[in-house]
Specification:
The chain has 15 helices and 2 strands. By secondary structure, it is an all-alpha fold. This is Polyprenyl synthetase family protein.
Length: about 325
């Protein structure tokens, strides 16, 4: 969508509280499945070298919505595959996300002392161990992705495709590229149109990859993958806009970090460039586009639709 395209703020209907609570309960249940799997896949903190394994577990189990692995499960569900077959891939994207947060929080990047209400990895373990913990999580993620080919349910060619999808989503044309543009943008003026590009890469590219990886591993058709791709692009944008808004108007206790940190670091955000009202309407428009993209999936896209609606209404 063009950044000038918007719907009037507040025109996207807020679902009844009971509906939101039901979605949140399902999210929590799937999050617990992911947490249990992460606990199995991560090495014990008592295993040598203990300090790096403790640092990895400190960051992975610091809380969070587990949205990215849940999107992998949802993408696989569209293709008719249950959680068990794609759980290693779902955990892999969470490890990648966590490694990126560890590195983002470092003094050389955002210099964040807390994350999700807890001291960040480098605060507890020091900068060097934090860097290495992030590196180790990155490596383990690809070991888990390769593991999806161990069973008979997923042909090796699908695993290769999923690995290629993730590498594109997190490289210089994805997450890392967005981080670079974000760092450069904080040093001087940035065009309004660049805001979307930064966040498409920094946040949206991995979110898009998650739903596609689930679909790829599950054997989704080309048309289904196209629908998942368009959904992922739009939901990734909406997610980041809401993140930016919450940094301005959210509650610190719910977010687990200081409010206003983006402004303090001169970050390029949607509210900083467009204001809160326009940013909110842009998030609503992106959410509506994401839901529209699911139309070809029919009932198979219902959970993804629920996720889109819930994410627009979130407070953390």
């Amino acid at each position: 969508m063009a950044l000038t395209s918007r719907v009037p703020a507040g025109s996207f209907p807020t679902p009844p509280r009971a509906e939101l609570e039901a979605i949140e309960a399902r999210l929590a249940a799937q999050g617990r499945l992911v947490e249990e799997a992460l606990d199995r896949f991560l090495v014990s903190g008592e295993t040598s070298p203990q300090v790096v394994h403790q640092a990895m577990r400190h960051s992975v189990f610091a809380g969070g919505k587990r949205l990215r692995p849940i999107l992998v499960l949802a993408g696989a569900g569209v293709a008719g595959m249950g959680p068990a077959g794609v759980m290693p891939a779902a955990c892999a994207v969470e490890l990648i996300h966590t490694y990126s947060l560890i590195h983002d929080d470092l003094p050389a990047m955002d210099n964040s002392p807390t994350r999700r209400g807890r001291p960040t990895c480098h605060v507890v373990f020091g900068e060097a161990i934090a860097v290495l913990a992030g590196d180790a999580l990155h490596a383990l993620a690809f070991a888990l992705l390769a593991q999806t080919a161990d069973g008979s349910a997923i042909p090796p060619a699908r695993t290769v495709g999923a690995i290629a999808e993730i590498t594109h989503g997190i490289g210089t044309q994805g997450m890392v590229g967005g981080q670079v543009l974000d760092l450069l943008a904080s040093r001087g003026p940035v065009a309004a149109a660049d805001v979307r590009r930064i966040h498409q890469l920094k946040t949206g590219s991995l979110i898009r990859a998650c739903v596609r990886v689930g679909g790829l591993l599950g054997g989704a058709t080309r048309d289904d993958l196209e629908a998942l791709s368009r959904y992922g692009e739009d939901i990734g944008l909406a997610f980041q806009i809401i993140d930016d808004i919450l940094d301005v108007v959210g509650e610190e206790a719910k977010l687990g970090k200081a409010i206003g940190s983006d402004a303090a670091q001169a970050k390029v955000t949607f509210p900083a460039v467009f204001g809160l009202d326009v940013s909110r309407s842009l998030a609503e428009h992106a959410t509506a586009q994401a839901i529209q993209a699911l139309a070809p999936l029919g009932a198979r896209g219902e959970w993804l639709r629920d996720l889109a609606v819930f994410l627009l209404s979130r407070e953390r």
